[in-house]
## 1
Amino acid sequence: MAAYLIADTLLTDPALYEEYKRQVKPLAETFGGEYVARGGALMVKESQLWSPTRVVVVRFASMDDANRFYESDEYQRLLGISRQAARRTVLIVEGS
């Protein structure tokens, strides 16, 4: 069953975040990730629990694949850039 890595990102250093974006997309693709949404237009219809700002959705073939990507040494190195350039909420959810 497919899985979706969803990240909501508030940029604090947009220039540095560009470096993260440049490196993360090809890495996610090596783990079978396919970007479904990447910071496009956003329409919030309800926000009692969560008020998203910039949403990224990456589809993987399975929860295991998504987790392998996130936990990989390569991605953990990139997280250092992301954490300097943004505040984020990241989750992985099973889907179809």
## 2
Amino acid sequence: MAQKIDQDVARFKAIIRGKIKKELRKFVATGELIGKKGKDLISIPIPRIDIPRFVHSEEQAGGVGEGNGDAGQPVGPGDGKQQAGNLPGEHLMEVEITFEELAQMLGEELALPRIVPKGHEDLASRGHKYTGISPVGPESLRHFKRTYRKALKRQIMMGTYDPRAPLIIPTHEDRVYRTWKEVKKPQAKAVIIYMLDVSGSMGSEQKEIVRLESFWIDTWIRSQYQGVDVRYIIHDAVAREVDRETFFHTRESGGTIISSAYKLLIKMIEEDYPVSDWNIYPFQFSDGDNWSGNDTDECMKLLVDRILPFSNVFCYGQVESEYGSGQFLKDIEERFPSEERLIMSKIPNREAIIDSIKTFLGKGK
């Protein structure tokens, strides 16, 4: 019976997984998932799940429920006027899945390769490995099978073992315990640094697109590393570090100096993230406006000399805005026609988010 239940649960989970994968592109383009996440699980609304239920056969279905009825006669009690219903309506089902499962489905849908981290042989976390047996130790580490075998051998040698009543009673001398030693485990760590243009030309819809895309980028990169830091930079003419809530809800005005964000990014890396120890992922989102050609030239120099050398990839996403010129993307494309570590994406609307994610993460770096 238990095996049958396990099979039913597995089949139901497969149905749910299929529904989520079918609707995944819709989830990416909407905000239904964000705000419903917990520490390890995320709640997803799944419509149109067919739950088994009893139905009558045609012979048992009957008529209107009050005899045969006459033409024009109201169905059910009352005079035919609209009344409150007493039957359940169609509802959405909230299904919880782990972020790991969500990342796996994203990877399958977009055919994303697994990320190959940079070498970090010297970066390690500490763990425990059980390597031997000792006659002393805490009871929580007692090796029950070995203790039993040792007691059995002792009783056989002493002639006290009776196979007709095989009672084995370990003594203090029979007990053995597992021993462990501390080992270092290689560990790859990553930092994601988001840079967002919050100047007057970036509206609420552009920021919402960035919020949606960053959620899925986080989900995938976190599934590839044991430890991930996330930092946020906003800028107009001046850049500053903020928390996540401020990053997505700041309203600014004024001009744009992109190099201010690049300089703060470089300062963060130099102070907190040694290049030999960290996989570094800068993501920049803008509508493509910059204050001047001189500042754009400085940005290109910073990219070449300071930023690209320490980045796994540098991703620039240009969110289209009716007020933005889009010139910065053209400048980057002209300056870096074939740089593999610099990935560019044009995001005209929410429907383009999933293609942008594929562009950013499809190289497996």
## 3
Amino acid sequence: MLPAMASSGSQQTVIDVEALIVGGGLVGLTLASALAGAGLPVAVVDRADPATTVAPEFDGRATAVANGSVRLLRGIGLWDAVAPHASAINDIRVSDGDSLLFLHYDHREIGDEPLGQIIENRHLRVAMLDHVRGLEALEFLAPMEITEITRGANGVVADLADGRRIRARLLLACDGRNSGIREAAGIGVTRLPYNQTSIVCAVFHDRPHNNVAHERFLPGGPFAILPMADVDGRHRSAIVWSDRSELTPAVMALDEASFVREMAPRFGDILGELELAGPRWSHPLALSHAQTYIGQRLALVGDAAHAIHPIAGQGLNMGIRDIAALAEVIIDARRLGRDIGTPDLLADYERWRRFDNMVLAVVTDVITRLFSNDVAPLRTVRSLGLGTVNRVPPLRRTFMRHATGTVGDLPRLVRGEAL
């Protein structure tokens, strides 16, 4: 850990670092691991108690981690702890309701590696918390409140609720889609509601999933079945069930047996009898995109900069690509002895990530609105589109590579290289 020292005259304890990360969730801890692992002094401040964030009842979501993101986790030393809890996605099957036309991705078409992995968020958190506590260049302060942050031409100062102060060259906002840091900086956000809410849970089923993920487009919204690791010999899958927001409260209020009966027709009979494997959660869905990712000695990362519909399972992966690009820009500058909070350096990060994120946000928005209805002409167009892509191997392989997060101007960590 970094040494704390008393400033002259006031006896106030001051922690001097290069970067201050606000938010100790998946994005914040991954970014901290990348930077501190490369030797950059970093402080992470989070208001949540880490002991509560790793409890099973805190967050029942499982995340689709694309192959490019797996490379980053491996490169910063996190993957070995996560791998035992992961389940590979070897195939993806996309269908539109009851249409006989579908789109099928088989990972063997583009290489030997899986398309991605499904990992419970709590296992990611446990691995990250264990990892950051062992990094000498990192000060992890949680639970902790920040009472005031001042950004100036020469640096950032953050006063903590316990009386300590952090001084840094750069403030990194990893505090989620409702980012207080972004709001305090006066950065506007474009928001588009979907009138959809996602219901998230895990289910046991009789038959093995064979590492196949399913995305079924239904009139109320997409229904995703994601292969999870078995537990005590029982087969599991994660469910992300998006439906009209006015319907979801009644669904959430059902008892377990009634909930399973309501879900079963959407699930189908491919995996046999179903049983809930834990609690249910619901999350309202909307697209949001910050009007800029940067400010004076400030960068927005992950959901603080952008949040999209879970239809393609790319939310965290977008944030991880942000991390890879930002970490590369920062570490390369620091190795040259540069100030990591200068406007030109931050502009490099925004240019690298903003267009890519905007394109993906627009694509997922169009797909969501195109498929979340039951208009007959659109159903025909959708089915023909899926069938066409499925019958054209080069086009299908292009879509598969985009799904793995390994297309475009990739940072070193996403390419599987050292930072």
## 4
Amino acid sequence: MNNIINGLSSTSTADLLKQKDKVESVSDSKDFATQLKSALNEVNELQVDSEKAIGDMATGQVKDLHQAALAISKAETSMKLMLEIRNKALNAYKEIGRTQL
């Protein structure tokens, strides 16, 4: 056990700050509104694919039932995730509104 502890290298505060600056520069490349808009577009595309798969199943034009089921499942899961994110954002907004200054 002593060898495991001795084998660890210590990280200095300066190294951690350099890593933090790198992470911030990467995350600053896209602002929140841009990321939210791209996420909404992805959910919309999955919904369109799901509707197409449902239409193909209804008309009997589906070639691969498994792929259609996957498209529907992906759309459902992404919509549930987007709704949860919306609910969390609304709760945070309400909480900020209740904060007294």
